[in-house]
Amino acid sequence: MSSIQLVRVTDQLPVGIPSLVADSSAEGVRNLGLLMGDWRAGARFDGAGEALFTAFVDGRLVGLGAVTPCTDLPGAERMRRFYVSPAHRRSGVGQVLAAAAMQEGLQHARVLTCNARASPAAAPFWESMGFKAASAAGYTHLFEG
After folding, report:
1. Residue 100 — left, alpha, or beta (φ > 0 → left; ψ -120 to 50 → alpha)?
2. CA distance 28 to 1
3. Is-contact 55 4, C-beta < 8 A?
4. CA-closest candidate to residue 110, choices 73, 66, 80
5. What is the chain's alpha carbon radius of gyration, rounded to the nearest angstrom?
6. Whole-model pTM?
7. What is the mean pLDDT, run by run of 10 residues, along the chain of 145 residues?
8. Which domains does the chain have, with CATH numbers?
9. Cα–Cα distance between 54 and 62 in angstroms, integer?
10. For 40-59, what is each residue's pLDDT tens digit?
C-alpha cells in the first residue's frame, strides 16, 4: 500500500485540483466547486481556526478537506469541503484528512460540526470518526472533544 502524504495548503492550490473537481462534479458533489469559488473570492483558510489539507498518494492529489469556524454554532469549528477520489476511498485517505482537520479544529474549539448531506457515505464516515448525529439547519453531526 502506498503512503499518504498530507500537505497543508496556504497560498496555492495544488496542480491536480481540476481533476479532483471534475471527479466530484461527475458524482454530483458540489463541495469542491464551492471550494473553488471560495478560493477565487480570496478564501485562503489561513485565519484563526482555519486550515485546508490535501492528500497525495504516489504524488497524485487524491483528496482534500478543510476546517473553519462554524457560523451555525458560535464557538464551534466545522469540517468542510471534504472529498476523496473514488479510486482512493476506503484506503485511509479520508481518515488521515479528517484526523488532521479535527486536530486543528480542536485547538480552537471543543465542538466540531459537519454537514453529511453531500453523499450517502458521508454520515457513516463521520460517525466512524466519532461524530454523533444532530438535527440542525447548517450541520448534521457534532463531535465533542
Report:
1. alpha
2. 29
3. yes
4. 73
5. 14
6. 0.95
7. 90 94 93 94 94 97 97 96 95 97 97 93 96 94 95
8. 4-144 (3.40.630.30)
9. 8
10. 999 999 999 999 999 999 99
